[in-house]
């Protein structure tokens, strides 16, 4: 191991210990009390503030922890999510059971298992059986379902999964508006609001997340239709870029000018990642330049939300800095990613029971992926691997 990564290894072991210490055996699985969006404790199967993404970290950290219980906990998390019968969404990558179904697929691939998990296949059947919509976005809508089907198709090579992803994209295309503002769509095309719905720009709820999915579909299918739609969306995003912090950032939605956020969910930290996808798939150097300018802004915004998380904090921004290094080979971006990692680690707290890792709320601790320790830990793992370990939900 690179000796410069020892501080990251120690942080990974700390997060592993936090997850292991707080695991709750339930039936045949394991769950964790996590913190919801209103800063209240709950037990939920989603990636967003729930149990669904914890196994991403446990599985990918196993080569470093060498703790057999890590894989037991990873499978236990998946089993608990699959069996969860409380109120939940069946579809949706971050909010529904599609997230833990992807975690099952991820574990299977990482461990070289021969069979595709039944849970992963069953969730695809749910997506295919229900009509597309009504939400468009990447965090829980049709773009998220389509991205999941693409990832499953890469494993199964079953045309039903690729065709299913194309069905998702066709529904999204049907709900696009093409006007003076470019090509765009609201999060909820059928919404009943009296005012015109907003077309968001960020990865979580906006057209950059949709563009990322469509570009990945173009790459998988070789279809000019999806490449053309991806270009339309990325060109709309390019028109909405605004100078900020020596680089570029984006307002929350088309028609707005105020630059309110710079994080994975809204702003440069996430949008820059999608422009890297655009450059990889579509081959336009302009997209790489936009991604690097987004990374420049992300670095200079720094820890503006005062937390380490993926969704709104340093781990999300650090992910773009790391991917900028992977795309360019420029060591400056690797140095900056390490800087963000060290700032993440500064949020670790020592308690009488052991290390604890906070959410974006002071005094609140969580193991979840988007707002908690497992997502932060996965950023550390990717940094230790110089970006060769992929982001599991992009």
What does this protein look like?
This protein is 52% helix and 7% strand. The protein is mainly alpha-helical and 394 residues long. A two-stranded antiparallel sheet has the order 1-2. Strands 3-4 form a two-stranded antiparallel sheet. Helix 1 (6-22) runs antiparallel to helix 14 (373-384) and helix 4 runs parallel beside helix 6. It starts with 5 loop residues before the first helix and ends in a 10-residue tail after the last helix. The model has no long low-confidence stretch (mean pLDDT 96).
Quick tags:
single chain; 394 residues; mainly alpha; two-stranded antiparallel ribbon; two-stranded antiparallel sheet; 14 helices; 7% strand
Helices and strands, with pairings:
Blueprint: H1 6-22, E1 24-26, E2 29-31, E3 34-35, E4 41-42, H2 54-65, H3 68-83, H4 98-110, H5 118-129, H6 142-156, H7 159-174, E5 177-179, E6 182-184, H8 207-221, H9 224-239, E7 242-244, E8 247-249, H10 268-282, H11 285-301, H12 314-328, H13 331-345, E9 349-351, E10 354-356, H14 373-384
Antiparallel strand pairs: 1-2, 3-4, 5-6, 7-8, 9-10
Helix pairs in contact: 1-2, 1-14, 2-3, 2-4, 2-14, 3-4, 4-5, 4-6, 5-6, 6-7, 6-8, 7-8, 8-9, 8-10, 9-10, 10-11, 10-12, 11-12, 12-13, 12-14, 13-14
């Amino acid at each position: 191991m690179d000796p410069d990564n020892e501080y990251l290894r120690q942080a990974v072991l700390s997060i592993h210990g936090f997850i292991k210490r707080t695991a709750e055996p339930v039936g045949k699985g394991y769950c964790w009390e996590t913190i919801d969006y209103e800063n209240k404790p709950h037990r939920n199967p989603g990636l967003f503030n729930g149990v669904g993404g914890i196994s991403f970290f446990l599985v990918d950290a196993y080569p470093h922890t060498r703790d057999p219980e890590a894989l037991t906990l990873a499978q236990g998390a998946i089993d608990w999510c699959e069996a969860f019968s409380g109120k939940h969404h069946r579809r949706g990558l971050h909010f529904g059971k599609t997230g833990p179904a992807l975690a099952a697929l991820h574990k299977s691939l990482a461990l070289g298992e021969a069979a595709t998990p039944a849970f992963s296949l069953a969730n695809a059947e749910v997506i295919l059986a229900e009509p597309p919509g009504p939400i468009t976005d990447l965090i829980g809508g049709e773009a998220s379902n389509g991205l999941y089907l693409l990832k499953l198709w890469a494993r199964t090579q079953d045309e039903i999964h690729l065709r299913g992803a194309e069905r998702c994209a066709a529904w999204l295309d049907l709900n696009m508006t093409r006007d003076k503002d470019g090509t765009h769509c609201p999060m909820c095309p059928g919404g009943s609001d009296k005012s015109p719905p907003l077309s968001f720009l960020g990865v979580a709820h906006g057209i950059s997340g949709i563009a990322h999915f469509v570009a990945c579909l173009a790459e998988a299918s070789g279809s000019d239709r999806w490449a053309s739609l991806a270009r339309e969306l990325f060109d709309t995003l390019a028109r909405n870029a605004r100078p900020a912090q020596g680089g570029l950032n984006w307002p929350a939605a088309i028609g707005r000018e105020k630059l309110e956020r710079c994080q994975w969910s809204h702003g440069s930290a996430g949008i820059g990642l999608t422009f890297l996808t655009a450059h990889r798939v579509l081959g336009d150097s302009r997209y790489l330049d936009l991604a690097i300018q987004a990374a420049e802004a992300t670095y200079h915004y720094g820890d503006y939300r005062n937390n380490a998380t993926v969704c709104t904090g340093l781990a999300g921004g650090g992910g773009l800095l790391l991917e900028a290094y992977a795309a360019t080979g420029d060591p400056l971006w690797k140095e900056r990613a390490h800087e963000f990692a060290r700032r993440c680690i500064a949020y670790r707290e020592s308690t009488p029971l052991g290390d604890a890792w906070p959410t974006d709320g002071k005094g609140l601790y969580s193991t979840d992926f988007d707002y908690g320790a497992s997502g932060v830990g996965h950023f550390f793992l990717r940094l230790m691997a110089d970006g060769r370990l992929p982001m599991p939900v992009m």
